[in-house]
Amino acid sequence: MAHNIDTESRIIFLSPPDVSDITPDKQNSSDIYFGDAAYWRIKLCQILPPELKYCIYTDYDVLFLKPLDELANIDFGNKWVAVVGNKCFKHNEKNWEKYFKEISEAGQEFNSGVMVFNLEQWRAQEVWKKFIPLKEMDFACAEQPRLNIVCFGHNVMLDPIKYNAWGGEDIEQTCVILHFAGHDTKPWKGCPSECKKLWWEYAKITPFYGILKDEYLREISKK
C-alpha cells in the first residue's frame, strides 16, 4: 500500500488497507458499532514503511499522561504483540466457552485499545492471514475477540493500571495511558466520567478545542 512521508515533520500519511478479507458481513453480524477502520490495525505491517520494526497503536479515546519510553523498549523475543490485560469480554459472547474460557483462565485476555506491534514478527508470520478463518464468526466486539484468539500465546502482557487505566483517584500519579473505553464514557459526548475534568484540561491545549466544545454542547442539548 502506498504511503507518503513529510520529511520535515516526519508525519507518515497512510492509505487505508484493504480489509475485506478479514471483516465480517455486517448484514449478518451483531457487530453493528464498528466499521472497517477497527480492523486496519491488523494490517499495519503492510502499510507502514518496511524499515519500521515496532509500532505503538492506541484508540482515539486516550490521554497520554507520561512519556511512552518503556513501550519503545519492550523485550518481545519472538512474541507478536504487547497488550494490556483487562476483563474485556462479556460472558454472553457467542463462542465464549469454545474460545475465551482458555484465554481468560490463562490470564491473557486483553483490550485492543492499546497495543504495541512487533512488526517484524507480524510480517514474518503473516499474522493477518490468521484472521481470515474467523471472518464468518459472529462477535459483538468487532476485532477485539479476533485479536485475542489469534494472538493467544503470542503476546507480552503489560500492566493495565499503567497503560490502560479506565479511571481512579490517583490516575495522574499511577498511569501512563488513560483510556475512556466504552460507549458511555466519552467526555466530549457529555457522558459521565470521573476523569472528565482532566480530559477537558488536555482538550483546551489542542487546536480542536472549539470543535470538541461544540460537539459537547450538541450532545448535552439532546439529553
In short:
This protein has 223 residues and is α+β, with helices and mostly antiparallel strands.
From the structure above, extract its key features:
two-stranded antiparallel sheet; 8 helices; four-stranded mixed beta sheet; 223 residues; alpha+beta; disordered N terminus; single chain
Description of the structure:
The chain has 223 residues and is of the alpha+beta class. The chain contains 8 helices and 8 strands. It has helices spanning 44-47, 96-105, 119-124, 143-151, 160-163, 171-174, 196-203, 209-222; strands at residues 3-6, 11-14, 54-58, 62-64, 81-85, 110-118, 155-158, 177-179.
Q: Extract low-pLDDT stretches.
A: 1-9
Structural class assignment: alpha+beta
Strand percentage: 15-25%
- Mean of the pLDDT scores? 84
How do the helices and strands follow one another from N- to C-terminus? Answer: EEHEEEHEHHEHHEHH
How far apart the termini lie comes to 43 Å
Annotation field: number of helices: 8
For the sheet with most strands, the description reads: 4 strands, mixed
Rg over CA atoms, rounded to whole Å, is: 18 Å
Quantity of strands, as a count: 8
- The coarse silhouette is globular
